[in-house]
Amino acid sequence: MIGAAASLAVASIAGGIYLFTAPQKIQIPEKVCSEKLAGAQVEKLLPSEGEPQFTEETYGGNFGWVDYTISKGNCTLSAGQETVNVWYLYRHGDTYPQEEVQEDRRRVEWGEEYGYYEDGAFFMFVGCPRSTHDDQGKLQLAVRSSRAERSQSDAGKDISELASLTASVTRTLVTDMFKCRSAESLPEGPVEFSGDQP
Fold first, then answer.
1. Which residue in 16, 18, 160, 167 has a CA-CA distance of 20 to 30 Å to 183?
2. Cα three-residue angle 48-193-127, rounded to 5 degrees
């Protein structure tokens, strides 16, 4: 009886230790970045369990605020030890010539849209005409991932996930937030590295 009781005590203690150290599930909200983006868009670049839990921070005003002269937003999502950041800027009259923004950089493209990759982030410059008087207007945006920043290969899984996220975020910004493009006018698939790198 004493041996059985001791075994039960050890089992109970072990069970308690297991419950105490079991990884916590991380819950990503259905909507993130002031409820402008879907949580499912960022899930693959954030851990599903661990500490600390999910947090969201926005800077420079409300993410998703749109103005016809200047609009900007900055949103950082954190979970465990990983982060995803989404930043955008629209300023009336800015055109961002392709040869200038891509010079001496790791060039990327998305259909006719263009940008570059640097230090775990895709920077994109996407046509976003706000009116017939501003048909050359462009939206500048960046999507960064701490996981991608640590990747040593352009073909790595985390960078591929970030490329898909960048395309997804771009679609949301130009079709839902700025309403300057139709979904049919946008490319399919993720952003891609240009094949003619120097």
1. 160
2. 95
